Recover the amino acids of this structure.
């Protein structure tokens, strides 16, 4: 089979990256938490705006 990779090999580099990121986050916990909160707030507003626009589209189509 060509191009077939076992999932363990595909997952191991990403898990190493996650571990490195976790270590960095533990060092800069306050900064990362603030950035995460800001990012989540921004994402929430974006999703909310998209929801409103989709609702308007459905109301117009109905």
């Amino acid at each position: 089979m060509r191009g077939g990779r076992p999932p363990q090999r595909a997952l191991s580099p990403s898990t190493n990256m996650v571990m490195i990121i976790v270590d960095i986050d533990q060092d800069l916990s306050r900064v990362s938490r603030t950035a995460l909160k800001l990012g989540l707030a921004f994402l929430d507003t974006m999703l909310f705006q998209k929801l409103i626009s989709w609702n308007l589209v459905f109301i117009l189509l109905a």
User: Anything to note?
Assistant: The CA atoms of residues 22 and 29 lie 10 Å apart. The two ends are 50 Å apart (CA to CA). The mean pLDDT is 70.
